[in-house]
Design a protein that fits this description.
Layout: H1 2-7, H2 10-26, E1 28-30, H3 37-45, H4 47-57, E2 60-64, E3 69-73, H5 85-102, E4 111-114, H6 115-124, H7 133-145, E5 149-152, E6 161-164, H8 168-171, H9 177-193
Amino acid sequence: MLDALEKMTTTQQEQFKDTANKLLLSTFLCRDKKDNNEAYYFLMSYKQIFDEFFKILGYEIQLDMPTGSVMLSGANAQTTLKLKRDESLVLLILRLLYHEKMKDTSLNENIVCSVSDIHEKYDYLEIKKKLNKTDLISSLRLFRRYNLIEVTGDLTSSACKVVILPTILMAIKSEDITEVFNTINKINQEEAAE
């Protein structure tokens, strides 16, 4: 690995460092996200070196080429993000919306919903505790940082558009969407029991 890194130009070494840091910070890369595009293709070009590098750190790069998604996995519990209840629910709702809207689009199209769509789905699921605007905005900002969504517009507006990136399929790997519904119901039942 070190030999391969030394054979890179100074610019390539900088790009290797930037790409590795981007992946460490955000866990996910999406080929179709403008600020991820260059890092995604650089990682593809030097995947073997990245694999060796991250293996030393205890990580593994998972790749889904059809969707253009990359995920860094294998971290220990100390580096795993713990989501709050509302963040978990919003993430699950985004996954449901992705699944529903994917039926109506082609693989090359972005999956777009609005903030009001998220609220509607939340209400449809009859979750006892209502989702307030502040928690939703906070959750969406978190998921944007992890390259799971892109936001176009003002998050405080219900008309704000949210592009759900295909990396969401790696974040919630459920092949069967009923598992997502079951997880939401479980969270809802735990809340009712408290």
